[in-house]
Amino acid sequence: MIPARGGTRTSSSSRTKRTISRSVLALGLVLGCVSAVKREDFKTCAQSGFCTRNRAYAELAKETPQWISPFQLNPSSLRLQGGILTGDLINIEEDKQPSSKSGLAFELHLLDNDSVRVRINERDPIHPRYDGVKDTVLIKPYGMANENSYQKLAKDDSGVLTIQYGNKNQNTIKVNSAPFKIEFLVNGVSTVVLNDEGLLKFERLRKKQEEAAQEKEIVDEDKLVDQGDENKDDEVKIEKSELETKLEANMWEEKFKEYTDSKPRGPESFGMDITFSGIDHVYGIPQHASSLSLKATKGTDAPYNEPYRLYNLDVFEYEVDNPMALYGSIPFMLGHSKNNTAAVFWMNAAETWIDVEKSPEDKTGGILSWIKTKKPVSAPSTKTHWISEAGVLDLFVFLGPTHRDIFRQYTSLVGTTALPQAFSIAYHQCRWNYNTQQDVAEVDAGFDEHDIPYDVLWLDIEHTNGKRYFTWDHAKFPDPMDMQRALGAKGRKMVTIIDPHIKKDNDYYVSKEGAELDVYIKNKDGNSDFDGWCWPGSSQWIDFYNPKARDWWASQFSYDRYVGSTNTLFTWNDMNEPSVFSGPEITIPKDVIHYGNMEHRNVHNLYGTMFHSATAQGLTQRNETNQRPFVLSRAFFAGTQRFGAIWTGDNLATWEHLEVASPMLLTIGLAGIPFSGADVGGFFGNPEPELLTRWYQAGIYYPFFRAHAHLDSKRREPWLFGEPYTTQMREAIRTRYSFLPFWYTLFQESSVDGMPIIRPMFVEFPEDEAVFGMDDQYMVGNALLVKPVSKPGVTRSTVYFAGTEKWFGIKDYSVEQGPGAKEVASPADKIPVYQRAGTIVPKRERPRRSSKAMENDPFTLVIALDSNGEATGRIYLDDGESFDYQTGDYILREFKVADKVLTSRNLKPADAGETSEFVKRAGALRIERLVVLGSTVPLKEVTVDGRAVQVECSQAPTDGSYVCTVKEPKVLIGEDFSIAFA
Amino acid sequence: MKTYPACLPLLATLALSIAVAKAQTNDRNSLRGVSPSNAKLYVPNASNHWTCLNGSKTIPFSAINDDYCDCADGSDEPGHIATDIKSSRVNDGVCDPECCDGSDEFDGRIHCPNVCDEVGVEARKEQERVRRIQEEGSRLRKGYIQHGKTTKLKLQQELEILKAKTDQVKAAAVDAKENLDKITEEYEAFLESSKKDREAEREAQLQPFIQEQIKRLNRAKETKGHLHRTLQDLRENHNKNYHDMAVKEMVSEYDDYVTSLGDSHTVFELLTPTDGSHQSEPGNSADTLLDRLIEDTAIIQREITSLHDILMGLRHEYNTEYNDEAVLEAVKVAVEFDSQWNTERQEFNDELPLDVPEADADKVPESGAIKNESDMAQAEFDRATDEEVKVQNTIKDIERKLNIDFSLDETFAELLDQCFDFKDADKFSNWEGDNYSVQKYTGGSKCWNGPERSVRLEMTCGAKNEILSVTEPEKCEYHFKMQTPAVCPVLPDSESGNDGNGAGNVPQSVAYSEERKDEVKRHDEL
User: Fold this and answer.
1) Residue of chain B whose Cα is closest to the Cα of A918
2) Where is the Glycosyl hydrolase family 31 C-terminal domain (chain A) (predicted)?
3) Among candidates B502, B505, B500, which has minimal Cα distance to B434?
4) E strand or H helix at B503
5) A809 vs chain B: nearest CA distance in angstroms?
6) Which of A314, A362, A574, A881 is catalytic?
7) Which residue of B has its CA nearest to A586?
8) pLDDT category, B88, cuts 50, 70, 90?
9) What is the SS3 string spanning A826-894?
10) B446: nearest CA in chain A?
């Protein structure tokens, strides 16, 4: 303890006056300085041995005239059978005498969904390289291309093997043997090229003793040479040895700050370049606080000088516009040009770095490129260099040809989003912390008093007894079940936080059981449990690679185990990168050991997802009747979408962080996770009311919509800032609720075909080059255009209206005509949001306390007619909480306007299964209102089966078209109907 | 046209008998959700149409309450904008307690039973309880008001008297000052004659002590600078990712400490070694110089002690799991420094207190008589000045009290100066809102890593002064709930027990205050 601090402080301050009077120097002492990310806590490529070695190899290739990759396929070894091409891949510098035992095994799989898998592994390593990522990430064995769907063309003179394949025979694969290189063409256009630059490098496992001996020899030789002629060629030698040093950097041990990575297996990294030919915009590889269109990390004028890094890390107060690694990693990259679309999935969960280099023709890109004049047609390319620390080279190439095809191809391998609980796409109220049961009751009452809907109230770590998860601080929360019931009566839920670090404490049942079952991650010795520091102090981390651990963990969520939990309580998994305060880069050391004597370095980026999935399993298992889980995770990897939602981590209450949220979420969505959000308001700091309001207005268009705040921040529930802010925030949140039927329908669509829910402009407008770099506005589904306001004091915003059709303001139905940028009003009470002509959006317009309370409300269809007078849309409805939809308990309908008739048509297959009473009742809810936009003449008569229905029209504010409202057509949401407009 | 039973708000249930309520629901002319006083607004025109209340649109009268919103202001659906409950709660699947007759759910999805009888009994019981509290509270509050008015009157009278006395005491003080000045002058003239010799002698005597003290002052300066630099380095370079609470706390302590030194203060000022010339001013004696040096040293040593405390806190509490270089460096400094420092004496271990000889009074010849005279003049001056200050302070205090907003009827004068210990947040800041029931106190001591402590005090009517609950909704902002007669409604003296509803604005939460009493922490008497 600190003795008598208060006393001494008081006495010292009493002398202040005299000091001031005598003060001569006036050094400006900045107090409470603005804290920011501590960059030096995280590795640069130069501090990472394998990144350095591979980047040096690229440097060597660049500096060597006429560089040719030393890798060659042994032509006589190539076999194509059952859709799989196999062969021996040889490094002519290492394998002087190629034999089937040496070298690398090469495989190329033709999949039945038109994508291709390429694998390179050691043929006969001294011990097996880790190859388990596929078992965790791929949802099921995929189908191989039918024997009839491909044909091998004869090798030509240059040794190129050509395979023509695809459901429409549209894809060509050219396999070049010497040097090794594979080119993928779609409809004859070169799209993706592997090892185009010859950067393939593959470090084979080796024994350390030999290496050490060799090193010694080299050192001795150097000494002799040095003694011989000291001054000669000094410079040349140093330069050469610098690159050499880099090429052999930190192979057997790596020090970073006070930490040492013991690397018991030595160097095992690999890297390869992938060219996206004719493509100047590439996207993906989240998570980075950066732009949607990836920036160059190499080459002249590259905005970044570090590669993009994929390594799940807990980064305190992360910076925007930075390629540093963050909480999640998905090695999926998509390239797009007007003529070309393709993607790759580099299936590796070890630390990975990716360099991006743009071909010299194109240096623009980025957010503002669409303003600039159109460039002459050229064939720019993007060269990427992928470097992973361990495992096997295993990648998929998706050739589309459309975006929809690519998302379907990719998610058919890693899975689509689980259909979420309906409540979980409504509004979540979170804070570190809601302090007591009374506090919870008061916040809940505050929402009711101010008539603001919300669905979920969250409890952060302080609710536990000393950060022991699954326990309650009973002084603060005397009756957690009663608390959940009170909220549940209004259709509301709660979420508690459960982290993967388990407090080391023999009196804590979870800790004790974990020790007894022996399910903790082990130290590098493989025997003792790893012990690190996190919120509860000294802690242990559960090894989710241990099958025993997964089942045990899942069982913790049963109602009798998790005392105080009810079926309205759900889960938040935080700190699962994992965050280890006492570890290198604030995470767990790479050399700790998982089940089966497997080193953590192989699976680091998957750890959080393993935890996430075990938790989701627990929530699913706890119910006798099948209820969907809801689990939010901070760490993520490819496939996370199968287990729940993620958020972008601990952001800041700044305008920059509001702005960067859009590209971050769009990128995460492209990479397969549609259910994502950024903390509304910003986690650290205190947003001014204008920022908070603007964040709510943007946040209602995040798929996962949660407000959250740090312990040290001021309270910021949406009614605490007075008017006009309370009204503005209430209006925003209510807008989200009115669109819930549309959001839920989009989630269902995504769960089937993998389409992102919020979409970059280029996904919806793939032909419009002006939108390829655009990330300050985006689409929700195919229907809503959203332009967040991310600057203070703004009342006008420039919106780019893509396509040749009209756009209708969702609040005032003002009409804008595409294509082109236009300045529109964005006053304090709204951001620009437009519905695209040709779409129909289902809504529920009655404000309620919670989404559950809307279940019985009638629907409104907003129909935006295109220039042909047509529009289509969908609705998906189910009970919102069970898995019964999987056996057909749902409604799926298409609405379509053509030839002045609106029809509703069933899209559910006849053999899909029966609907329950609940869903039948939902189907019997009425459509109370149609809003018809874009009609060039006022609708005079609207009839349903000859029966006239009331309709009123007025002219839209900004053009001559009409807004017509049809009142009570008396048709049901779940049944066929046709309504004639005249 | 469909008619639905009107939702009967709780208060209405209290006012009317159940029988009457039931009769009213059968009134065929009433529109659901339209109160009798508003019935005239819902009348069809000649063509059986009706115009929205905001004039936006004219619709068929049958479109009122047809469960479809025609008017922009929603006025055509009074059944959904009932004042009793919010429209968002009508037909939402939840039986709202405000509608005891269950009429808020009428779409047949769920059945809400009519619990008005039970609710009525309970509510009447509750009402009776509240009435009793209010009666007692009212009685007490009237006493407060009386007390407030009497106090105010008394203070005003006292103020008059004191003001009258002001001139008199002022004059006495001026006289005393003149007398003192005169005698002092004589005394100094007398001393002047022998000054030089005495000073020279004294200076020679003190010189070694002055030199030693300069050395100590410079050592203290150097040490202070070193410790400040150590802590600044710690603040800037420590690893925030480790979330080491001890480090966070010490950095924050340090920031707080530096802040407490004052805005224009810079921690490195005065660090230049001194040769004593800063402290010496022409005409000052060696004693003065030495005093100044000792004082300056002591000030810096106190500061060193504060910094030492912070470093010791770090040393004992930092997390040894981390190897944060900045922290390790600071701990190293702490350990080294701790071995040299005597915390109790606020001095270095090896610096013993200086044994400075007293100035020899006997050397001043014939000082007795005139010194005595001088001392007496000084005493008289002190007395007169004290008297003047006392009168002025009393006037200020009375004026302050008279200026305090004790609400319109002086109710809160009763509570003035009663002990109310709010974790240092003792500066009454202002009333929140217009109805004198919420007070704000600000300017408390600064929190670790947070703002100055503040208190929001919410008062509800109760028969005694009592703190009901204390919460901390955000860091260092405390919410107190208390009951007090001071916010009870003032009931007419001729109050009869059956007429509880007419009595002004009853704070809503009054009903809960009794129930919460048990669970709250007792606090100091108010």
Assistant:
1) B109
2) 754-841
3) B505
4) none
5) 18
6) A574
7) B241
8) confident
9) CCCCCCCEEEECCEEEEECCCCCCCCHHHCCCCEEEEEECCCCCCEEEEEEECCCCECHHHHCCCEEEE
10) A6
ipTM given for this complex: 0.72
Tens of pLDDT, residue by residue over A107-131, are 999 999 999 999 999 988 999 999 9
Q: Is B108 on the interface with A (CB under 8 A)?
A: no
pLDDT tens by residue, A790-831: 999 999 999 999 999 999 999 999 999 999 999 999 999 999
CATH architecture group of domain A858-982: Sandwich (2.60)
Asked if residues A539 and A533 have their Cβ atoms less than 8 Å apart, the reply is yes
d(CA A839, CA A894): 11
C-alpha distances out from residue B217 to B285, B294, B349, B350, Å: 19, 8, 15, 14
CA neighbor of A641 nearest in space, from A602, A671, A666: A671
> Class of the B411-519 domain?
mainly beta
- Report CB contact under 8 Å: B343, A3: yes
The Cα–Cα gap between A778 and A659 comes to 12
Please give the biggest Cα pair distance in chain B. Answer: 120
pLDDT in the model for residue B417: 58
Q: Which residues contact B451 (CB under 8 A, 6 or more apart)?
A: B475, B476, B477
> A53-203+266-414 is classed in which CATH architecture?
Sandwich (2.60)
pLDDT tens-digit map of A401-413 = 999 999 999 999 9
Mean residue pLDDT across chain A: 90
Domain boundaries, chain A: 53-203+266-414, 858-982
Instruction: State the best of A738, A846, A854 to mutate against chain B, taking most chain B CBs within 10 Å.
Output: A846
| Six token digits for residue B429 | 């800041």
Mutate which: A856, A930, A949, vs B, most B CBs within 10 A: A856
In this chain, the answer to whether the domains covering A53-203+266-414 and A858-982 adopt an identical fold is yes
| pLDDT(B143) > 50 | yes
Both tokens of A81, joined, read: 């059978």
The pair of structure tokens assigned to B190 is 């007398």
Chain B neighbors of A538, CB-CB under 8 A: 321
User: Which of these, B32, B106, B46, lies nearest to B76 by C-alpha position?
Assistant: B32
Asked if B474 has any chain A CB less than 8 Å from its own CB, the reply is yes
Q: Do B242 and A586 touch (CB under 8 A)?
A: yes
The closest alpha carbon to A648, from A698, A589, A711, belongs to: A698
pTM summary value: 0.80
**Residue pairs spanning A and B at CB distance below 8 A:** 167
Q: Which among A667, A657, A567 is positioned nearest to A619, based on CA atoms?
A: A567
Q: Known catalytic residue: A577? A: yes
